[in-house]
């Protein structure tokens, strides 16, 4: 079932084109990793999808509705984890959750139950009575997430929820996202950290300059750009490496010896690792082996000519 | 009414707000009665200035929400910007009304000569609404709560001086005396004078009408800016 769909969405800020005919479908139970450098249009895309800003052209469908898409009924089913820490510093963690639960229409015992549940979910139960001012960066981020969970959204949009926190807190948040997926929540997760997307996303959408430049699973995206495999083998006697015999093996395109490292470049799917290894082992002695695999960073670099992390041109 | 409830909660959690809302009015009640000017006890004249300070303090919550991105987050929630503003303004209004009642009741108990306490209460409440609306409009110009408050403090002093709250307007040069009518504080001072010496009810209605018109105008200006 399609939870949300954007068709031909155009959004302009003056002369600047922020979204350029964006088409995107999000299906129930998916975690979509929306990846792109800073200023690529990720936040504009999600703000448009949430009805927070108007768009100039195109149409949006949410929960099967094409009319009154941003009705309160639909907003009730959605949650937003903002990039900024949008919590009240003067209220306790519990009061913050009570506020957002109340805004989403929860009352009385139900609200109390959901607030406790959300606090436990993000691991803040023991800090429920403290104000965010006394929290670490990671705890504040978790509270920011919990504020979007009390009303049990079917579709959760997380806008760079791990910006500026330590790796331990980041892992905690990623585990929380996994748990939400297990509960059946559909998630649109925007980030410019490709490791996060590689860990949690069932599908990746790459955005640059307001356009969706590609989408698919991590493996599909990598396969699309991968035309060769590289293996680096560290050997004990580099002088004895049988370069010509290695080149003669099926699938091997080239062999380089650099110091004590032999790099073997083969065509994708050649399946010659066993033969390569046994040959090097018997002549030169294998000390170590590394396979160079492309990742999303390479996908992004190949497609846009930019580094993912900072959006700077190479 | 979640936004309303939590607005009250947030206001009372702030210690500075508590001083503005409780300690200052109590101190104002105990200020002495003057010999010639003003016509009402000093504390009741200065209360007009206090109302302006309270207004900017209370509406500062909205700047804070905008600054923090809470307003943006609420735009994704099933609540309209109007509901957000209305519930916050309602909370501020409840507080200022309570403060005005406290001030008048305190004066009556302390046996101050307030002439027409009920009409003075109405005047203070109407002026409080103007002060909240003015602060809302003022705050909508700023991204930072502290800057807004600091600049507004100067504006309050100017309005109090030129409006006839801190000194008789007759002491001002002619040009400034004519200019004074543009300040809501002028109408408050006029209203206080009417409470002591006024006879024609239409004049009192006119004064309150002008203040309510100011309120409406400032509310419109203050509501235009949404997410920032």
Describe the structure.
The complex is a heterodimer of chains A (about 325) and B (about 230). By secondary structure, chain A is of the alpha/beta class. Chain A folds into two domains: about 1-225, Rossmann fold (3-Layer(aba) Sandwich); about 225-290, VC0802-like (2-Layer Sandwich), CATH 3.30.2130.10. Chain A contains eleven helices and 13 strands. Chain A has helices at about 40-50, 70-75, 95-105, 110-120, 135-145, 165-180, 195-200, 220-225, 245-250, 275-285, 295-305; strands at about 1-15, 15-25, 30-35, 55-60, 80, 155-160, 185-190, 205-210, 210-215, 230-235, 250-260, 260-265, 285-290. In chain A, the strands form three sheets. Chain A has a six-stranded mixed sheet with strand order 5-6-7-3-8-9, sandwiched between helices. In chain A, strand 6, helix 6 (about 165-180) and strand 7 form a beta-alpha-beta unit. Chain A is elongated and about 75 Å long. Chain A starts with a strand and ends in a 10-residue tail after the last helix. The model of chain A has no long low-confidence stretch (mean pLDDT about 90). Chain B has one domain. Chain B is mainly α and about 230 residues long. Helices cover about 75% and strands about 0% of the residues of chain B. The longest helix of chain B is centred in the middle third of the chain and has 29 residues, at about 80-110. Chain B has helices at about 1-15, 15-30, 40-70, 70-75, 80-110, 115-140, 145-165, 175-180, 185-195, 200-225. Chain B has ten helices and no strands. The interface between A and B is medium-sized, with 28 and 20 residues.
